[in-house]
Write a structure and sequence with these properties.
Gliding_Motility_GTPase, 5 helices, ATP/GTP-binding protein, P-loop_NTPase, alpha/beta, nucleotide-binding, globular, hydrolase
Amino acid sequence: MDFKSSDTVPGPRAEDHLPHTATAAVKIVIVGGFGVGKTTMVGSVSEIRPLTTEETMTQAGIGVDDNYGSDTKTATTVAMDFGRISITEQLVLYLFGTPGQERFWFLWNGLFEGALGAVVLVDTRRLEVSFDVIGRLEERGVPFVVAVNDFPDGPRYPMEDLRAALDLSEEIPMMQCDARRRASSRDVLMTLMRFLHSIAMASA
């Protein structure tokens, strides 16, 4: 198609522009198994319209993907989710949600580049899925917090029992959350930022 000089190419929406007061940006990744709520968290907390790469699930995934506990889920992230939130007038977080299905985990390598920290979302219906996720973060030396997403039909366990089951050290923050709620998701991110700040102060 040939563009005339009078043609205009639409730019970003006004609300998508980076605040002029921003002086620092931090990359955060949100990780977890399939269907734990990563796309939901990015969408609930992002101040811009989130970018998602969801595709409809097909029969090709039967026997390959473990969707136990997410039987009604019809789409899955195949590359990443992206959002942005201003923590203060100066500090902006760029949020990258990773694909949860194991066959897409090779994409994590690029998403982790330059990431300062991570949120591990956990579903108590499929706790075992989190083992490999946490192991990968530990191998890379990426600081993380653990957020137990509150699913209505998910079993409830004392936080100490979940910490023991996930073999987490006491210094790693762990909390309940509801990824559908902006305030709850923001609290998780604030906990991560405080944790990263404590690590920086300890090594100073």
